[in-house]
Amino acid sequence: MASAAEQLAATFNLGVLSKATELKKRIWFTLGALIVYRIGTYIPLPGVDASVMGQLLAQHGGGILGMFDMFTGGALRRMTVFALNIMPYISASIIIQLMTAALPSLEALKKEGELGRKKLNQYTRYLTVFIAAFQAYGIAVGLESMHGANGSAVLFPGAVFRFSCVVTLVGGTMFLMWLGEQITARGVGNGTSLIIFSGIVANLPHALASLLELGRTGALSTIFIIAFLVIAVGVVAFIVFMERAHRRVVIQYPKRQVGTRFFGGDSTHMPLKVNTSGVIPPIFASSILLIPATVAGFASANSPGWLSFIATELGHGQPLYMILYALLIIFFAFFYTAVVFNPQETAENLKKYGGFVPGIRPGSATAEYFDYVLTRITVIGALYLVVVCLLPEILISKYGVPFYFGGTSLMIVVSVTIDTITQIQSHLIAHQYEGLIRKARVKGRGR
Known about the structure:
Layout: H1 2-11, H2 14-19, H3 21-40, H4 50-59, H5 64-71, H6 75-78, H7 87-102, H8 104-110, H9 114-144, E1 147-148, E2 151-152, H10 159-186, H11 191-216, H12 222-244, E3 246-252, E4 255-258, E5 261-264, E6 267-273, H13 280-298, H14 305-313, H15 319-340, H16 343-352, H17 364-399, H18 407-446
Antiparallel strand pairs: 1-2, 3-6, 4-5
Helix pairs in contact: 3-10, 3-11, 7-8, 7-9, 8-9, 9-10, 10-11, 11-18, 12-18, 13-14, 13-15, 15-17, 16-17
């Protein structure tokens, strides 16, 4: 704990930071871009009564609409131009990743280097436009059928409204995609992750106020609220520990003789993260489970009995929901790990550059060893995801804790924070090295 605190203090050392001009520019650019994003989440969609959407989310906030509203930072509830947020781009990126592992043509593009990466990014953008247009049209049609206490959600329904709604929402998504790329290139951290992070964090004060309001009205006891906050801090610390945990596989490089001199012979390590899949498994698992529950929630009173059964059994905190949620998280943890890490390809690359694992033959034996190690640590990573995601689900279902304290949202916040702090540290170290190089050159000229 002491070393982590020292690293954090060194990261935000104002004296060092004041001299890192480029880093300051990057931080200010990132803050400015996120402010632009937050302003956009309050620009209303033309021709829509946002109060009706707010009433709808108040009734069905525990479903998939509530989860997407959490990721959009309340933009869906307010029905703004950023109602789709950057989620279509994330969906497109994941689909292209999965297709890259399945289609040999896309896998060949991935191996082409920078040119192949640009082509894959282009395919991702095209797919983003398609997904965003499909979702925007569904929102437009759904809004026309919504009615609240104040009347219809759409003031002037028809083809013109649908067209303007699709164009506005798709344009908002594409702007956020561009903004995320600009943050990644000219700012600090991953732009896409920071946009989702800022949306979640922006609503955490409201969620905390709602929790305290439950205590003030007597719905929750003061002891429970204190215990819950202590548990939340403990969960965050546990997430930090597990997200930084990795298994080090020793890699040895043989010595090479060039003339009369020997080169190489170094020993390094390959870090394999315990949670290679990141936050993808909980998002996929919750999305799949919440879709039937949301559809059942919108069904009428004359709907079939099996729909009401689904709405009941797949509700938050129900045993069937918990079991399916845990199984889906485990499945997607192994599935997505297999997609992002290819043991055979890694073993071939090591063999190409002369590297080997001590005691393991290069080639297929090394690939089997990587697969064996990765399978074992993925079991730990999957169980970690299950524990982190199910504990908040129990609190949400039994005690009415706000949705923003869920395991998925906490994991996103912690992961993005760790990644951003790591990048800031890298910029500061690079700046210190540049200063040392300048001093060495000045001393060299003085001599």
